[in-house]
Amino acid sequence: MNGWLHIPSTWSAELMAHAGWDSLTVDLQHGMHGLEMAIQMLQAISTTDTVPLVRVTWNDPGQIMRMLDAGAYGIICPMINTRAECEAFVGACRYPPLGYRSLGPTRARVYAGADYAEHANDEMLTLAMVETAEAVANIDAIASVPGLDGIFVGTGDLRLSLTGGIGFDSADTQVDAALDTILAACARHDRVPGLFTASADYARQMIARGFRLVTIKTDSMLLSESAQQVIKQTRGE
Amino acid sequence: MNGWLHIPSTWSAELMAHAGWDSLTVDLQHGMHGLEMAIQMLQAISTTDTVPLVRVTWNDPGQIMRMLDAGAYGIICPMINTRAECEAFVGACRYPPLGYRSLGPTRARVYAGADYAEHANDEMLTLAMVETAEAVANIDAIASVPGLDGIFVGTGDLRLSLTGGIGFDSADTQVDAALDTILAACARHDRVPGLFTASADYARQMIARGFRLVTIKTDSMLLSESAQQVIKQTRGE
Amino acid sequence: MNGWLHIPSTWSAELMAHAGWDSLTVDLQHGMHGLEMAIQMLQAISTTDTVPLVRVTWNDPGQIMRMLDAGAYGIICPMINTRAECEAFVGACRYPPLGYRSLGPTRARVYAGADYAEHANDEMLTLAMVETAEAVANIDAIASVPGLDGIFVGTGDLRLSLTGGIGFDSADTQVDAALDTILAACARHDRVPGLFTASADYARQMIARGFRLVTIKTDSMLLSESAQQVIKQTRGE
Amino acid sequence: MNGWLHIPSTWSAELMAHAGWDSLTVDLQHGMHGLEMAIQMLQAISTTDTVPLVRVTWNDPGQIMRMLDAGAYGIICPMINTRAECEAFVGACRYPPLGYRSLGPTRARVYAGADYAEHANDEMLTLAMVETAEAVANIDAIASVPGLDGIFVGTGDLRLSLTGGIGFDSADTQVDAALDTILAACARHDRVPGLFTASADYARQMIARGFRLVTIKTDSMLLSESAQQVIKQTRGE
Amino acid sequence: MNGWLHIPSTWSAELMAHAGWDSLTVDLQHGMHGLEMAIQMLQAISTTDTVPLVRVTWNDPGQIMRMLDAGAYGIICPMINTRAECEAFVGACRYPPLGYRSLGPTRARVYAGADYAEHANDEMLTLAMVETAEAVANIDAIASVPGLDGIFVGTGDLRLSLTGGIGFDSADTQVDAALDTILAACARHDRVPGLFTASADYARQMIARGFRLVTIKTDSMLLSESAQQVIKQTRGE
Amino acid sequence: MNGWLHIPSTWSAELMAHAGWDSLTVDLQHGMHGLEMAIQMLQAISTTDTVPLVRVTWNDPGQIMRMLDAGAYGIICPMINTRAECEAFVGACRYPPLGYRSLGPTRARVYAGADYAEHANDEMLTLAMVETAEAVANIDAIASVPGLDGIFVGTGDLRLSLTGGIGFDSADTQVDAALDTILAACARHDRVPGLFTASADYARQMIARGFRLVTIKTDSMLLSESAQQVIKQTRGE
Predict the structure, then answer these.
(1) Three-state SS annotation for C161-213
(2) What are phi and psi of B236, to 5 degrees?
């Protein structure tokens, strides 16, 4: 299970790292943190064995490489709609000759060992987000890119793209069909399927359906919803 | 109901300010924030009508005055054990001739209006923490200090002081007797009684018993516990 | 009237928000703030009713989307020289099917309400900067892009591009002619015309001429110039 | 002339350092900065020859010593009401045998040279604030403390203490008499007299009267007032 | 061996934590960090097994307690000159009935386990700095305070106090005699003797002499000196 | 000689600026700092006469322009493999008509004077990194771009690209041949040749060979290696 970090704080990151998640993702796309805070949060996660991931803002090689240098063990890249975009993303995560990542793993080699650069191409996770109708249509072209490790579904964006509707976790024929398409492509190309969910219930359904990297809510949602709940409970509502 | 902020982040503060708390306390005693972040969190709370309070690190006039200048509408001061300590605390919150607060309400006058200094002595809340056996023994001397608005019980420290035990919210004869003593003194001297609780259940009991400024958990507890809960739910535990 | 923020501080942002501006722009192009400070400054502006805008560093969809998610109510995008650039910019500000903005309005939905995403396409302002000879030549192609709300003139860059000269606010035949061209295009396509000015005098002239979103100086200029003035006054110069 | 810094930003500090002030004071009493930002602002001031001063939060030896170690060339200490308080303040600024400052001028020795500690007792300015009726009554006892360099009048607090009134710069018999008392004591004991003013006019009057370290407004006031002024000018009010 | 942190950065702290020190001290007395950065640096140290210590700014119970709550495993307190000062220091580090530390180990219990508060009185290190002639004269009164774990010599301040001289590590009869006095008192009262050194040579001599918690240089010195050395080497000087 | 900054701290930057380097480079590609810290570090460098340079994250015009506006006196741009990439880079550093840099040198004009913009095209250094086989093959096309000032070799990436090996400074036929090719092209086109080295020895060899902008290690390496060395020396290893 994967936790999702939107609060720009090393303390909330450390708390989440101790909560029992298998991995934690610092979200630079919709989170409230800048790059330097993201790096400090990766440090905070390193106080535990939780695997640190980063969702980058965009398919931007400079940012992808920096977050890997800073100790991310994998990158989730939003809005991969074509094979070329996926190749650019994966290439930014791999040293030559497999890609074009620049050498300089400043924190990664402190944290993972002096031989980091020799093993990084094998170990760093690359997860392409599929979250539009176009991406679903191109799913085999995307999923078959060499060096890609998984497909991560942005369920909110996918629903919006397919149906025009806004929301998470609701049953929806078109979204469900797209999820089947994606799962099948992941099986065909031996990629890890993952997705974002906004509830434990939906997460369980998705795990049952075959998703393996399942995010459940964000830290913002957890804090906000539990505060509202405790206020209601105290008021006796 | 009063929320309690330990996470050093303006974003978590703004989320909490929108969650429905009547007031929010930036806790500089056991929280993870420095002074500048505390000020920025007061700004974040000011995006809503939630009343901003600060628990200071210690009975330190410099810090008390800075947090008032920065826009806190009240101060909770830890470890007030004697009348002299309470007088020093209240004096730091009041302009002459009632106290010795220094004039310079930099942010307070922007946020509360140019006439802030003329009304501050009437409006700023002063809450003395009673959390030791010594303080309970001195309760009338403390509660009767002119200008004091309320007594806030540090339930964890009070239990530790009275019983040597560590914990929150548990029924305990000695603590219960002390709470009765404190409530009675608040009634005698017309002070608002408040306390920290670690659960909605205990908060409800305490409200029923007459406490009016009731804190329920910290943001750290809310985040950590709800993360653990959602992980368990997803695992089907 | 629109204020312009270059100082990376939530306190100066809050002061400016209380000064009476209709809107305030956090300038990520020539300002001294990083992304996280920009977000915190948007929070500080939200303590008032002043409309928060952001000028982004460049026509970069990732940054544009993040600032909208963080609560900007409009984006000013520099160096729009062609219709394609304008379409890319506007598309980054609009959810499908009008554009390709990714769904995840983390702070925007707290601050603007849970239904933010349903109304954002109608409400978020999109202002393209026209500040080169090329852009003036393409003014109709740019101004007619569907979903664009206004044209904001970068007067310093425009002068430099047209005349090779450096400065603000000076009368200049070529610049004046370009301003007429831009105003006419705005009228034709029903777009709000705006610009940057470095003095109240020039701002008044420009308002009289038809500009509606008029920026007057930056916070840096206001602070620096007023400090120099008060020193001179005290010295009796 | 002395500028006064309330905005927590290295950029506004650098701007002020280039504006022509003889000295700049980072105000940790009523300013919005934490300790670390104060240190960074001292660095920003060091890009020019402007003399960096710090007003500390309170007569606290730990904070006084840290700001000297960080490169402040003088300390303004608030609320010195008695000779003992003044001795404690001056002692915190002087190495043994003149005082009890702890040795460790981390930044000061980089910035002022490796022999800093040998000359610091002669060079670091010590300015005691006289801002209450009690302090005026004790003025000779305070001003005669060995090692004290000057008396700085907190005009707002002094007025409040003497008259109960709130405001700056207004003519007031009691305040005027106190200023005369202070100036005379400074002359008797060869101390530099200084004060805070909120306008160039009052500053000029005070310089004419004999004050030598004259502060004029804060950066917050300069920014806020000039923003309001430029808005009015543009509106034609 | 103990490293000493003056650079306010989580990255330099993490680098130092990986360099092989047994313990690392975040120095809030002469370092350049504020409280919040100190906490983040404690997090960075927790990515390794290096023991995190804090030297506090002054014998200030509020700050001492905050740093323990934030995860420091021991406190070094400057300028302990009398038994009463030592008792106040040690009491701030111990929960009742041994002391008066307030209960609220926010980060400590996450990092050290939920039963932290039950064991903290036994585990948190308390190290009093002896660095003046007065303290040496009071050495038995200081060293015998119950709950004290060690004596840490501030060699620079001690030399200054005893001889008026400024410097580190130089042989000096008076300082040497004081070190003998301190070592003997540590032996008598079973306290760990420690000190600050500015070179590996002096550190080795001091270890041979019986000191056990030996600090060697600061991170600032290491960076500055090694930069100067590599420049000289490259220039062939 | 050029120092290289990876530690996100104004204090380490100021220390390095005083260490004797001719120039210092804030490295936004492999360093741990965000944009705002980079700007503050440029301020810290400005306390000395050391020339401030920035290596940007990627060939991104927005970031390049911001760092110039913030006071960088030159930009090192990674991964320039083609003439078109080099032209885009140099254009971002030059005002029209030589390039497309946007006008708004916020800090640069404070620090370098009000006429900064008139001289910037002549004074700002542009250094393209050549660090792949492709770039070496295109060396004349790259080096001949008008407005380019120098070629900076990324020795780690170049070795990886040419040989698949990871490391610095080792003798290697293929790398040596490429360095010759690059030096010859620099001579032909009158460009400054520079490179990164990880030791004083290699730096001396490279200076002897004709390189003029020679970087020796990073601040992280200096701190980490000197800490390890002092620990070993103290242990007598």
Answers:
(1) HHHCCCCCCCCCHHHHHHHHHHHHHHHHHCCEEEEEECCHHHHHHHHHHCCCE
(2) 75, 25
Q: Following DSSP, what letter does each residue of F101-119 receive, concatenated?
A: PPS--TTHHHHH-TTHHHH
Nearest chain A CA: its distance from F216 CA (Å): 15
- The residue count for chain B: 237
Closest to C193 in 3D by CA, of C182, C178, C202: C182
Quick one: average pLDDT of A16-44? 98
Residues in F touching D39 (Cβ below 8 Å): 11
Q: Is F106 an 8 Å CB contact of chain C?
A: yes
| Three-state secondary structure readout of chain C | CEEEECCCCHHHHHHHHCCCCCEEEEECCCCCCCHHHHHHHHHHHCCCCCEEEEECCCCCHHHHHHHHHCCCCEEEECCCCCHHHHHHHHHHCCCCCCCCCCCCCCCHHHHHCCCHHHHHHHHCEEEEEECCHHHHHCHHHHHCCCCCCEEEECHHHHHHHHHCCCCCCCCCHHHHHHHHHHHHHHHHHCCEEEEEECCHHHHHHHHHHCCCEEEECCHHHHHHHHHHHHHHHHHCC
> Angle CA(A134)–CA(A138)–CA(A142) in degrees, nearest 5?
120
- Complex prediction ipTM: 0.96
CA distances from E78 to B208, D89, E160 (A): 48, 18, 15
pLDDT digits (tens, 9 = 90+) for D166-203: 877 777 899 999 999 999 999 999 999 999 999 999 99
Q: pTM score, two decimals?
A: 0.98
- Partners of E111 on chain A (C-beta within 8 Å) are 14, 47
Q: What CA–CA distance (Å, rounded) separates D229 from D237?
A: 9
Of F3, F20, F231, the CB nearest to E1: F231
Which of B135, B197, B198 is CA-nearest to residue B162?
A: B135
Q: Which amino acid, one-letter code, is at D184?
A: A
Helix, strand, coil shares of chain D, percent, nearest 5, are 50, 15, 35
Q: Are D79 and B100 within 8 A, CB to CB?
A: yes
- Give percent of chain F with pLDDT exceeding 70: 100
Tell me what percent of the residues of chain C surpass a pLDDT of 90: 95
Interatomic CA distance for residues C106 and F64, integer angstroms: 29
Of F145, F160, F154, nearest in space to F82 by CA: F145
Residue with tokens 């390189």: F211
Greatest CA separation for chain F: 63
Contacts of residue F138, defined as CB under 8 A and 6 or more positions apart, other chains included, come to: F81, F82, F83
CB distance F70–C32 less than 8 Å?
A: yes
For C111, D180, E85, the CA distances from C114, given in Å and listed in that order, are 9, 62, 56
Per the prediction, chain C carries an average pLDDT of 97
Q: What is the C-alpha separation between A16 and A1, in angstroms, rounded?
A: 12
Ordered structural domains, chain A, with CATH: 2-235 (3.20.20.60)
Q: How far is A192 from chain C (nearest CA, A)?
A: 23
pLDDT(D229) > 90? yes
pLDDT tens digits, C119-153:
999 999 999 999 999 999 999 999 999 999 999 99
> Which residue ranges of chain B lie beneath pLDDT 50?
none
Q: Does C132 touch chain F (CB under 8 A)?
A: yes
Average pLDDT, chain A: 97
CA dihedral in degrees (F85, F89, F92, F96; nearest 10)?
-70
Q: Flag whether pLDDT at F220 surpasses 80.
A: yes
- In the structure encoding, which two tokens stand for residue F104, read together? 């708004």
What distance in Å separates the CA atoms of residue A20 and residue A101, rounded to the nearest whole number? 32
Q: How many CB atoms lie within 10 A of CB E118?
A: 12
Closest CA to B164 of E96, E85, D156: E96
Q: Name the pLDDT band for F171 (thresholds 50, 70, 90).
A: confident
